[in-house]
Specification:
Order of helices and strands: HHHH
Number of helices: 4
Shape: elongated
């Protein structure tokens, strides 16, 4: 729950900063740049489920309804350790991508209007 809250907090900071910066830097072509920016950003909707599936398959996570590791389980004792590790890797990758994106935005963003804008 704490990780989800941190994720949404960082996403709110990103939206409040990056979209305003796009308008400030080149207002004449902000719509086009926002489209390109969103296309790149939303590509994670293609790659994240694919990578998660690969990691969970390698972690030998069961997929059936009543098998260990499924949503209907009663205890975590039945979940294979390799499956838990695979989930930790999945969430670690997400956290790392958010952190790297935030760091790049904070370090590399310059709010000067560009000559081509």
């Amino acid at each position: 729950l704490a990780l989800i809250m941190i994720t949404h907090f960082c996403g709110g900071i990103n939206a409040a900063g990056s979209y305003c910066v796009i308008l400030d830097i080149f207002p004449a072509s902000a719509a086009s740049f926002t489209g390109v920016d969103n296309t790149i950003a939303q590509s994670t909707g293609i790659f994240a489920p694919l990578l998660t599936g690969i990691l969970l398959d390698r972690g030998h996570c069961p997929t059936g309804g009543s098998e260990p590791g499924s949503a209907s389980m009663s205890t975590l004792d039945e979940v294979p350790e390799s499956c838990l590790h695979a989930w930790h890797v999945c969430f670690g990758i997400c956290a790392a991508l958010y952190a790297v994106g935030w760091l790049l935005f904070v370090v590399l963003t310059v709010c000067d209007k560009r000559y081509w804008a």
